[in-house]
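Researcher: Next entry: DUF1192 domain-containing protein (Dongia sedimenti).
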Amino acid sequence: MDADDLEPRKAKPQPKNLDPMSVEELAAYIEDLKSEIRRVEENMQKKKAHLSAAAGLFKTS
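Model: Predicted structure:
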């Protein structure tokens, strides 16, 4: 059994309460989210490239 098996799974984060936010704060929040989405997509592309390279190494002909 791994130690990871004993760790509780991460709970899904709760949505942020948008009601008290002004229009400007909401616009800034959207920009922050877009930036985070771009960062995640870039990370996914790196991982896909890494997996593709590894698959090419172990591919049998």
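Model: Note for the record: The mean pLDDT is 88.
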